[in-house]
Every structure is written in C-alpha cells, then in structure tokens.
Amino acid sequence: MEHMSTSVIVGVGPLSFADVVAVARHDATVTIGDEAADGIRRSREVIEALADDTIPHYGVSTGFGALATRHIPLELRAQLQRSLVRSHAAGSGPEVEREVVRATMLLRLSTLATGHTGVRLDTAQAYAELLNAGLTPIVHEYGSLGCSGDLAPLAHCALAVMGEGKVRDRDGELHVTADALTAHGITPVELREKEGLALINGTDGMLGQLVLAITDLRRLLTTADITAAMSVEGLLGTDDVFAADLQAIRPHPGQAASAENIRKIMAGSPIRESHRDPQACTRVQDAYSLRCSPQVAGGARDTVAHAASVATIELASAIDNPVVTRGGRVESNGNFHGAPIAYVLDFLAIVTADVASISERRTDRFLDKARNAGLNPFLADDPGVDSGHMIAQYTQAAIVSELKRLASPASVDSIPSSAMQEDHVSMGWSAARKLRRSIDGLTRVLGIELLTAARGLDLRAPLAPAPATAAVVAELRKTTAGPGTDRHLAPEIESAVQLVATGEALAAVERVTGPLN
C-alpha cells in the first residue's frame, strides 16, 4: 500500500495514486511547486504574446468547436471565456460524489501545472485554494461525452473558480459560491484569453474515477481471496489445487498472487485437516467456483494492473487543446479524447462482474443441501420454519445480474456533437460512472459471501477454522450473532458489507497472515 500523504505538491512530477486518494478522500492539502509555478508563468507569456496577433489562434482569438471559424475581437475575449464556462456548465441529474469532484479538480490543476495550458498562476492557484478550503462545486451525473474532455463536469468546477454557481463545504452544507469564497478569503478569478478553455478541456473526471476504482479494486480482489478461502474451507474443499507448483505451470502473475493468498489464509485449518485423508474423502474434484478462484480473481488482478499502467501514463500527461509546447508553439491536438481511459474502465466493469459472479456461485453452494457437504439446507436452524440465508443469495443474484448489465461497454458508443465537429466521442465518463456502481455491487456481493461462509464455518463446530478465517469470523461477530433462528437479515448483511468496504476484514486476516498480495 502506498503511503498516504497529508500534503501534496503539484508539479514536481506526476501525481501518484496515493496523492489522488489523499486529496480526494482525506482532504490532504495541495500546493503548487516553485518549478511548476515558473512553467505556468512562461506558458502564459506565450499566450499573451498571441493576444494581439492578427492570425486566429484557437481558444485565444476564436470561438470553440463548430464555432471556431469566428474571429473574436480583443474587447470580447474576456466575455468569450466567461461565456464558454457558463454555457458548458450544463450538467443535469444527481450530484456527483464529493471525492470524484475533488479528484477531478486536483487532476485539472495537475495539467495546469505542467506549463502547457497557458493559464495565469492565479487561476491555477484558485483550484488549490478551493481544494484546501474543502469547497466542492456541484457537478451533475450527466453532461460529459468523454471527448473534448469532461466538458460539463469541468465547467461546473470552473464556474466555482469564477465565483458562480453553488458549492458544498466540508460538512456537506450547500452555499452560494460567491458567499463561500468570501468566507474563506478566496478571490474569484476573472478569466482571460484561453483560460476558460484550459479549465474544461481534460479527461480529469474519468481519470479521477479510474484511479479511485483501481484503489478500491485492489482491496476488493484481495478480500475476494479471503471470502473464497472461507468458502473452500467451509464447503470441505481442498487447498491442494492452490499449490505453487500447479500455479507455476500457467504463470499468470495475478493467478499466482491469488493462490498464494488462499494458501496463507487456509493454513493450519483443522476443518481442512479433517478430510485430507484420500481414503476418507471420496470427492475427486471441487466445483469450478472453488477450484478456479485464483484463475478468475487472478485474471481480474492482471486486468487491474493493465488499467493502472494506462492511468499512470495519463497522470503524467498534459491534456488540453490547444497546448503550449516547450518550444513556444500553440498547437491544436486530439489528446483530450478519452478512448484509452474509457477502454480500461469498461474492461474493469467486466472483471468486476465476473468476480462477483463466482462469489455468488460459492455462496449458493452453501445453501444447497445436495452440495454443501452435510450442512442444513440454506444453513437454516430449523429448515422449513427458518429460511436461513436463502434470500441473502437472492440479493446477491440481483446484484450480479445488475453487474452483468453494467459490464456492457460504454466505449463502443458514440453520438456526434457540436454540429459534427466532434463526430466521434469516447463515452469515458459514462464508463466511469457505471464502474463506480459495479464496485459498490461487488462490495455487497463479497459481503454476503463473507456472511454466509462465516455461518458455514461456525456450523462445522467442533472443528475449528484456520486462524486467519477465524479472525474474520470473530470480527464479524462483534456486530452480528452466530447461527440461530431467523433474524432480520438486512442489518447483518450491511455489517458484513462494511467489513469488506472499510478493509476491516482484510486487516483482521493480515494480523494473522502478515501482508497479503
């Protein structure tokens, strides 16, 4: 796990995943490095030198998109930038989560700090000031096509920098932006040539959500190894198939890491030892959902690693159009197109759905008398009077079906916009939004598997589980009672989901095993 900083300096190199998470989720303070400040000033000098040029320069002395053919006179250029932001702040629908907006603003600031955008230092500094004050612009669910950047979401952020619109404070209270800026001693920015365009022309919204998703999936995939180990153990499965030499025959790194985790978690299990004798155990092979857990979770890990490589490149990029080159040219380009990010966001939604799917299959095995190796139907205390975890699996199944729908790729879609000037778009923002819902679904599915597997392990008494799985059960039992007659199940599901979401289940295991992969 990367070290979580309480202060992030922008412009001393590419931001790390930990930097983004620290600012987005933990309100780390943000400053602009001295070298970056110098680069911002130099690029601004280039833009100002072009302001009086009779030759049109896109975004400096022209309109935008399909209106780029109009030359804008000098006296209207400040209005041009304000009008751009106001008209593009056209989002609709529910508010986007605070952490997403903060990540978006940080990543826009990171591009401004590259010295390729031509904004003034005061304009860049305003983003740091809003972040440090804990003021979060209202951004809406719909409005980005993932091309020409996340235009509407970024425009809503830029609107706040201008002192317009509304923001929420650290406590979630809604304020008129002008009043909130005054209360925090922040001066609204009066945009000048190119600045409005530079503030909205980036992939920051989809990239911020990708970084947060990768961070969450890394924890969830390790947790999936924990719930898989609990299920294999509780269903009297074998850990022999997870042996290192068997995994090495097919040397995918994610698979090896997952299998190693399961071996560590199941180590020292009296339940496992109770059926190790091949003379006493007649089962030749476990079902795929048990035996192939490392192959599925491992493939997902390798997909996350690929997505992380794409995100790392994007974190080191300057996304704007036009850009100011190191040689002082101002050039139009297509780097704002979100395709590289959109593809991996969609890919992650696919593997998220599949990891949830195999988790649900393991849960279902616990509930079927014909397949659960001697446990009661549905793990019920008095089957027929009690339903046990029957409907918990229904909930899992409903979520898994939803995840399959969310796995349908957004990036294969495109709707032309701006009078056919922007005739092929990435839909990367949409891919990011559905991935966030997918990750929430996977968290809930794993929580239900954990809850069910814990009951299955308890019902193997007097045989004891492995020390590591016993630690998870003990953590769960702090808030949830063990096997018994039917109780209100939703609160127990939520307790298990929170163990997964907060990382407490993972922490409980690692206190026994040491760090897992």
From TrEMBL:
Alphabetically ordered keywords of this record: Histidine metabolism, Lyase
This enzyme's EC code(s): 4.3.1.3
One Gene Ontology biological process: L-histidine catabolic process to glutamate and formate
Record pathway: Amino-acid degradation; L-histidine degradation into L-glutamate; N-formimidoyl-L-glutamate from L-histidine: step 1/3
Entry-linked InterPro entries: Aromatic_Lyase, Fumarase/histidase_N, HutH, L-Aspartase-like, Phe/His_NH3-lyase_AS
GO cellular component, one term: cytoplasm
Main location, first listed in the record: cytoplasm
Stated family: Belongs to the PAL/histidase family.
Protein name according to UniProt: Histidine ammonia-lyase
Taxonomic source organism: Leekyejoonella antrihumi
Gene: hutH
